[in-house]
Amino acid sequence: MPLQIAKPPRAAEKAVHSMLGRLIAEDPDLVPALRSASLSSLSISTPHRVAVLEVDQIDNGRSLRSVAQKKGWRFLVHHGKAVVATINTSVDRKGKHQFGHITDGPFVTGTERAIRRAEALEPVQNGRFELLLLQAPAIHVVALWLRNLENGADLIVPIKPAPEPLRPNHVLSTSDFMAAAAEIASEVQRVHAQARRRRRS
User: Which residues lie across from 78 on neighbouring strands?
Assistant: First the structure.
């Protein structure tokens, strides 16, 4: 069965379309991939919720579902048939959807490849999985979170580029992902501590 694509709030779609129109009309050079685009040539697809994993919640043995926070939506931006960017919305304190950011960096191509990998997985073809984007900004990790709608057996597909020991497009259980994330977080904290000691000396 294909990945389950949740229907985003209408306000999130409107925020995305409004920003794309503004970029094309006022600042097309902000995103190089959109320089040759017109609003009529652009479309959005594959809406998926964004979940954020903060560094203080990364702890081996903890449930990803219990600690990841949902923070807006993400869409693929197409110029013709090609995916050229991704665009995010965020939710303010009043619960209002607004434009978050747009990117045409390496995670765009990485996302396409990770989605193709996810769609080919046997558990996905035989089950029901919702597509989410998982971000762990403190450790520079972005991944697809395939949330199992039938049980708790979620899957994680890291998106390229990914720090070791994660491997792009290599499928992990959430427990294995959290263990790897804890290892990366420990290394990041060690490097930061060394940098602080050097500044003091």
Answer: 43, 83
Let me know: does 102 contact 23? Beta carbons within 8 Å: yes
- To 10 degrees, the CA torsion angle through 124, 125, 126, 132? 30
99: phi then psi, degrees, rounded to nearest 5? -60, 135
Measured distance between the N- and C-terminal CA atoms of the chain, rounded to whole angstroms: 58
Segment 171-185, tens digit of pLDDT: 999 999 999 999 999
Domain extents in the chain: 10-200
Q: What is each CA distance from 169 to 110, 128, 172, in whole angstroms?
A: 9, 19, 9
Rounded distance, CA 179 to CA 139, Å?
13
Going 50 to 56 to 57 to 60, the CA torsion angle's sign is: positive
The DSSP symbol for 58 reads: -
Kindly state the tokens that stand for 45.
Answer: 């697809």
| Nearest-angstrom CA–CA distance, 85 and 67 | 28
Q: Could you tell me where the DSSP H helices lie in the chain?
A: 10-26, 64-67, 106-119, 122-126, 174-200
Contacts of 199 (CB under 8 A, 6+ apart): none
pLDDT tens across 117-130, in order? 999 999 999 999 99
**Gap between the Cα atoms of 107 and 170, Å rounded:** 15
Tokens of 24: 């094309």
